[in-house]
Design goal:
The structure holds 2 protein chains of 2 kinds. Chain A is mainly α. Chain A has 5 helices and no strands. In chain A, helix 2 runs antiparallel to helix 3. Classes of the chains: A mainly alpha, B alpha+beta.
């Protein structure tokens, strides 16, 4: 097993290198880190301020630190979702172009068939002329044999083009589904982005209320003195 | 970066629909070159062979144009398949944060509510202010719950669409590979047909030079066949038309075939007069990295054409080295293989084998 380990490692590295990097990865990682940071601060907030007096500047500073971490995680998430939505739009456009290109290629099989049939007719006329010439010059029989083979090849090509053209609807349908899936994704991401913007506004309102509570707690203990902001 | 390039390539290729004009024009030219060839082949002789050569050249030109068209389509299809593979690998599903948010809301709401309940019956004005502040806080916490739920639903829709994309990409990729195979088959078929046409015109030329069989059925008063282009045939001893050797030939700028040192350029001019060949070769070779030899080679050759397909002539290089050059007609009308060897001279290329195309 140990003997194969370097090979497996090499294959794993090679596979990882083959997979193209997702351009959204840096944004995703930033959003995930900001979310982890906020969660840690938010969970520890109550225990941090429990031992502080209500008017201790550290108390308000702790609440504001969590509020800033919340802003950071929501804004990085918003940036990520907006970038994902933009990429989804680009993907949708590319899928549409592929659909159009595929339609042109698959539609081209009908042209291939028509052209092959046209060539077939020309070759049949050539064969007829050559056979006529062979009556006077038998040494042309080798050429006639090859020309007949060519006629068979072109006939087979026409039949293949006909068959390939038959799969056009299936391909268009499959790619149509792909375009729809990309459009769905784009719509879902744009919707998520809009909803996140609304959610951000509510988180802001919540943290304003949370800071206001800290101010109130101080004011009822020490009327007329608001808990000062901690000097940086 | 690779994805970005892929996007650009797909975008450009898809915008430009590949035209069929080139090969259609070549086909028309081929068909119009000599429409009466087969009918008039009965006349026989070198003129028919020359006409067959011209048709072979036109057929080869058509085949090359059609092959370029099909290869171009296959290249586009490959790029589309690469995009589909890449898209299927990167669904880019965003990480959901709704679960931790909901836990946070639930914990905070419970805490706030418990504190409010503690102060519920306290008449102190300050405590009531605090209770009001807690009430506002709880209101905003409660307002977050449906917003988070809605966004969670939207995120689930994103994930669902990603699954659909991966599935659709896999199916589309399968079809794309099938289309690609078809295009490659069609290109290979074009090659086979091109070879068959070259063979046909070669046999037609050979057959026209064979002995005419007696006319077994002659209608009384039938007029003799008249050539549409009765060009007198030049005397030749070669089994193939002289046009297969004579003329200006060059090494193609891309995908050129060779043995030995790779040529950078290789130009041959072959002339014929009264059965005698004279010619010049001017070539430049790509020397290996660090090579100190002379990349340029020039020589002249001459000699009589022989009754064989391969023609061998003596050569003398510009440095005075002697040797031989062999001219071998290629598989198509417009191809000529050139194989030469010379005496050894310091720093000089002394042998090569290249496939040239007619200028």
């Amino acid at each position: 097993m140990i003997r194969f380990a370097p090979l497996l490692l090499f294959l794993a590295v090679a596979h990882a290198q083959e997979k193209p990097a997702d351009p959204l990865d840096p944004l995703r990682q930033k959003a995930e880190k900001a979310a982890v940071d906020w969660e840690a601060l938010a969970k520890g907030l109550e225990s941090r301020i429990a031992t502080l007096l209500p008017c201790d500047p550290k108390s308000r500073a702790a609440v504001e630190e969590v509020s800033r971490a919340s802003d950071a995680r929501l804004s990085t998430l918003s940036a990520y979702i907006k970038a994902a939505a933009a990429k989804a739009k680009s993907d949708t456009d590319t899928a549409k172009r592929i659909l159009a290109a595929q339609a042109a290629i698959t539609g081209g099989w009908n042209t291939e068939r028509d052209e092959a049939q046209e060539q077939q007719a020309s070759i049949e006329a050539q064969v007829a002329d050559l056979k006529e010439s062979m009556r006077k010059r038998g040494s042309l029989s080798g050429a006639e044999q090859v020309l007949t083979e060519i006629a068979t090849m072109v006939k087979a090509r026409a039949a293949q083009a006909e068959e390939r053209g038959g799969s056009r609807e299936a391909i268009n349908s499959l790619l149509g589904n792909l375009v729809v899936a990309y459009q769905d994704r784009q719509t879902a991401l744009e919707n998520e982005s809009t909803l996140l913007d609304a959610e951000i506004a509510r988180w802001n309102s919540y943290y304003i209320a949370r800071v206001a509570r800290a101010v109130t707690e101080c004011s009822i203990i020490n009327p007329g003195v608001a808990p000062a902001k901690k000097r940086p | 970066m690779r994805r970005a390039c892929l996007f650009a390539a797909v975008a450009l290729l898809c915008l430009a629909q590949r035209p069929r004009d080139d090969y259609r024009a070549a086909y028309k030219e081929w068909r119009q070159t000599d429409p009466n060839l087969e009918r008039e082949a009965t006349a026989g002789g070198a003129p028919v062979a020359q006409r067959a050569d011209r048709m072979a050249a036109a057929a080869a030109k058509f085949a090359a144009a059609r092959k370029a068209f099909l290869d171009g389509l296959a290249q586009e299809e490959e790029q589309q398949a690469a995009w589909l593979e890449s898209a299927a690998l990167n669904p880019a599903t965003p990480e959901g944060t709704a679960a931790s948010d909901q836990r946070f809301i639930a914990t905070e709401t419970t805490l706030v509510t418990r504190t409010m309940d503690t102060f519920a019956n306290d008449p102190d004005r300050g405590i009531q202010q605090l209770r009001q502040a807690l009430g506002r806080e709880r209101m905003f916490l409660e307002a977050l719950t449906p917003a988070i739920a809605q966004r969670k639903k939207a995120a689930e829709a994103v994930n669902a669409s990603s699954v659909a994309i991966v599935q659709s990409c896999a199916k589309a990729l399968e079809q794309s590979h099938a289309v690609l195979d078809s295009l490659k088959d069609a290109a290979a078929e074009t090659d086979r047909e091109a070879a068959a046409w070259a063979e046909y015109y070669r046999k037609l030329g050979e057959g026209a030079q064979g002995v005419a069989t007696p006319i077994t059925e002659a209608l009384p008063g039938a007029s003799p066949a008249v050539l549409s282009n009765p060009v007198p045939a030049p005397p030749t001893v070669t089994p193939l038309p002289l046009a297969r050797y004579v003329g200006a030939w060059t090494f193609p700028t891309s995908n050129g075939m060779y043995h030995g040192t790779q040529p950078e350029s290789f130009d041959v001019l072959v002339n014929e007069e009264n059965g005698q060949a004279t010619g010049t070769v001017f070539a430049r070779f790509k020397l290996p990295s660090g090579g100190t030899g002379d990349p340029v080679l020039r020589f002249d050759f001459s000699g009589p054409f022989q009754p064989s397909q391969r023609q061998v002539f003596n050569l003398v290089t510009s440095e005075g080295a002697k040797g031989t050059i062999e001219l071998i007609p290629g598989p198509a009308f417009n191809l000529l293989e050139v194989n030469f060897q010379t005496e050894a001279k310091p720093g000089k290329i002394r042998q090569a084998d290249v496939l040239l195309v007619k200028k």
